[in-house]
């Protein structure tokens, strides 16, 4: 089904079996709702008091919940407890608007378990599962509630190898990033690659303000359930490795507001994991508010010999999509191997053959589509330890039939 060719005009109310339903406002599985890339509503539904609001719309494809960013639509909450939508033509074919049927009442002779929940409840139940323990209940050390502040120097209980450099200390900065040599009060992030003189891990580096709302905290572990969980996670995400975690550092920004935007809440984690000669970086994302402040998400090293920026994360208008993005097929989680083995430095001008199975309606004869596929292959290679300054070039081969 394709809604591209529909002549949309006016406001629409959604029904299934005569019952009023709404668009989903969390990610919808691709190849569902009778289409390739089903469209879902970002930022949730408004209240009656909000009046008419404009919402961004995303289409799920290739394990990216917002692979397609379709044209925004207008949404209104009505006093009768339902919503109406001013649909517009989607940005491409194979996109179609979706209706959330989970909450409709269906009369049936089959006894079904009571699993009906609202979209908001589902989000709150699912997202914390990717978060490691945090807060006072986990025994975290809490940063002072100071705008542009930082933790005091934190002596690591185990050295952390970060792309060839071993660090014995770290700072948790309130503006959403970790530094190793000195604290940072900068609320305007560097653009990666910065080619600077320090290693930086930017969970979500922007102008945050925990003096008004939210908590910034951290904890490091050398035993217990957190190490067991980290071991399981890494072996799941990197099935070709045999890994046992011996140290975990968890930094959490819980419901922190942006500067001068006190009604916003943003939650994310940066988790460092090491064991043996391996080091890993996890970034977990919960609800992320949109912002007009400059944003940087990823990591950078001295002289930018290694760096990575999560795609589309530098646009504060789309930053809320972090909770629906991933490089390991776990929504809201990005994982990287960051020890930086010496073998990575010898990969120069190697010819690599790929056999790739593509399930896409993209036209790969177009340069833009080809570059997109190459970029995704590069991200996968970087995830497994290759330097991200590698350059992928496509070599065309002609298949000759026997």
UniProtKB/TrEMBL annotation:
The keyword Disulfide bond applies. Keywords: Disulfide bond, Signal. GO terms for biological process: cell-matrix adhesion. SMART domains: NIDO (SM00539). Signal peptide: none annotated. Pfam families: D8C_UMOD (PF23283), NIDO (PF06119). Residues 203-341 form the NIDO domain. This is NIDO domain-containing protein.
């Amino acid at each position: 089904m394709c809604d591209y060719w529909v002549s949309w005009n006016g406001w629409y109310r959604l029904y299934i079996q005569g019952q009023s339903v709404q668009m989903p406002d969390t990610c919808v599985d691709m190849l569902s709702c009778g289409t390739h890339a089903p469209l879902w509503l970002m930022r949730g539904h408004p209240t009656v008091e909000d009046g008419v609001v404009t919402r961004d719309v995303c289409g799920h494809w290739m394990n990216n919940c917002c692979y397609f960013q379709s044209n925004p639509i207008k949404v209104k909450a009505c006093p009768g407890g339902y919503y109406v939508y001013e649909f517009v033509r989607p940005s491409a074919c194979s996109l179609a608007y979706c209706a959330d049927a989970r909450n409709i009442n269906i009369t049936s002779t089959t006894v079904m378990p009571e699993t009906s929940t609202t979209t908001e409840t589902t989000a709150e139940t699912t997202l914390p599962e990717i978060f490691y323990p945090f807060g006072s209940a986990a025994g975290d050390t809490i940063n002072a509630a100071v705008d542009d502040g930082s933790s005091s120097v934190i002596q690591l209980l185990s050295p952390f190898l970060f792309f060839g450099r071993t660090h014995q200390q770290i700072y948790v900065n309130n503006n959403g990033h970790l530094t190793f040599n000195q604290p940072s009060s900068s609320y305007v992030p560097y653009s990666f690659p910065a080619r600077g003189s320090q290693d930086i891990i930017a969970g979500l580096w922007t102008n945050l303000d925990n003096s008004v709302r939210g908590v910034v905290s951290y904890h490091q572990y050398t035993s217990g359930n957190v190490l067991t969980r980290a071991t399981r996670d890494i072996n799941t995400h990197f099935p070709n490795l045999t890994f046992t975690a011996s140290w975990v550092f968890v930094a959490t920004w819980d419901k922190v507001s942006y500067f001068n935007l006190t009604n916003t809440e943003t939650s994310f984690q940066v988790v460092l994991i090491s064991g043996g000669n391996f080091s890993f970086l996890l970034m977990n994302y919960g609800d992320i508010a949109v912002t007009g402040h400059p944003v940087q998400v990823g990591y950078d090293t001295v002289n930018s010999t290694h760096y990575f920026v999560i795609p589309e994360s530098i646009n504060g208008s789309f930053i809320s999509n972090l909770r629906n993005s991933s490089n390991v097929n776990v929504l809201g989680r990005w994982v990287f191997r960051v020890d930086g083995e010496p073998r990575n430095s010898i990969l120069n001008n190697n010819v690599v053959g790929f056999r790739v199975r593509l399930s896409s309606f993209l036209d790969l004869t177009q340069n833009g589509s080809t570059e997109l596929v190459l970029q995704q292959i590069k991200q996968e290679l970087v995830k497994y330890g290759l330097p991200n300054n590698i350059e992928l070039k496509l070599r065309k081969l002609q298949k000759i039939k026997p």
